[in-house]
TrEMBL record:
This is Shikimate dehydrogenase (NADP(+)). It comes from Marinobacterium weihaiense. The gene is aroE. Residues 111-194 form the Quinate/shikimate 5-dehydrogenase/glutamyl-tRNA reductase domain. The keyword Amino-acid biosynthesis applies. Residues 7-89 form the Shikimate dehydrogenase substrate binding N-terminal domain.
Length: 276
């Protein structure tokens, strides 16, 4: 039987993961089936068990189940442990369910490898303090950034995240109105404000001619944050499509032991977005 993989979420209809993994499989000559499954909230744990007992070799997990996937994993990678969330499940040789989180490494690879953004020594402003931001802090620190300021609408959530990294000393927290009026090397929008067509309330002073701006969101048109950054003359403006493809590539590598080439897949998705 062909090895099976799936992404579990709710809602799931618009997931691009099946087409990304189908392209990776074709490109690397791997025989597999990857589907998107709508899972009812009450069924999540049982559905994971069922899937991984049959021909299911691995799962991606998306909203709203990443924390529950973290809880059900019987072994977790260090990056998953720190993220408090799991987006990749598979079985270890001893039968235990393993959980990993590839979102953060996906962002770091998209920034550093695909877009040439220098992370080593960078002063980074991160907007938002939800699940996505929590998952990217440790990989950014591991990439050598000098400092991360996490700014969030609900300041207490940003403070809670900064406390997780208190030993490291490079992560600080504040509200949007407390961001110092100076240009950062890199600004990452990890809020879901773009989903509502909104821009987090940050000052133009945060963007200088050498600032790279990254929105974890993406779409057919530039997001409000990307438009704002372009108008201010940011050095680079990047959306989250590359992060999506890179996190998928890392899951594929974990499951199949083969590193896919992400560039042609990103190109195909970008073209599909523009012509949809
Ligand atoms: P969460 O719901 O966990 O967090 C949402 C965050 O956005 C919170 O910090 C919230 O602030 C903030 N926020 C929401 N609306 C506004 C607003 N109007 N103005 C300012 N801040 C706002 O979401 P996630 O962390 O899971 O996801 C965040 C974004 O990242 C989403 O857009 C998601 O699509 C994207 N993402 C992209 C990935 C990729 O591969 N490209 C992977 C994962 C996520 P508060 O705490 O005050 O409510």
């Amino acid at each position: 039987m062909t090895d099976r993989y799936a992404v579990f979420g709710n809602p799931i209809a618009h997931s691009k993961s099946p087409q990304i993994h189908a392209r990776f499989a074709a490109q690397t000559g791997q025989a597999l089936i990857y589907t998107a499954e709508h899972i009812e909230e009450k069924d999540f744990e049982a559905a994971v068990e069922r899937f991984l007992q049959g021909h299911g070799k691995g799962l991606n997990i998306t909203v709203p189940f990443k924390e529950r996937a973290w809880a059900l994993a019987q072994w977790r990678s260090e990056r998953a442990e720190l993220a408090g969330a799991v987006n990749t499940l598979y079985r270890l040789d001893d039968g235990r369910i393993a959980g990993d989180n590839t979102d953060g490494i996906g962002l770091v690879r998209d920034l550093a490898e695909n877009n040439g953004v220098t992370l080593n020594g960078a002063r980074v402003l991160v907007l938002g303090a939800g699940g996505a931001v929590r998952g990217v802090l440790q990989p950014l620190l591991a990439a050598g950034v000098a400092a991360i300021l996490v700014a969030n609408r609900t300041v207490a959530r940003a403070e809670t995240l900064a406390e997780l990294f208190a030993d490291d000393g490079r992560v600080q927290a504040c509200g949007f109105d407390q961001i110092p009026a100076e240009a950062f090397d890199l600004i990452i929008n990890g809020t879901s404000a773009s989903l509502q067509g909104e821009l987090p309330p940050i000052a133009a002073a945060s963007v200088g001619p050498n600032t790279a701006c990254y929105d974890m969101m993406y779409g057919a048109e530039p997001t409000p944050f990307c438009r704002w950054a372009m108008e201010l003359g940011a050095a680079q403006v990047i959306d989250g499509l590359g992060m999506l493809v890179e996190q998928a590539a890392e899951s594929f590598r974990i499951w199949r032991g083969v590193q896919p080439d992400t560039a042609p897949v990103m190109q195909a998705l970008r073209t599909a977005l523009k012509t949809a």
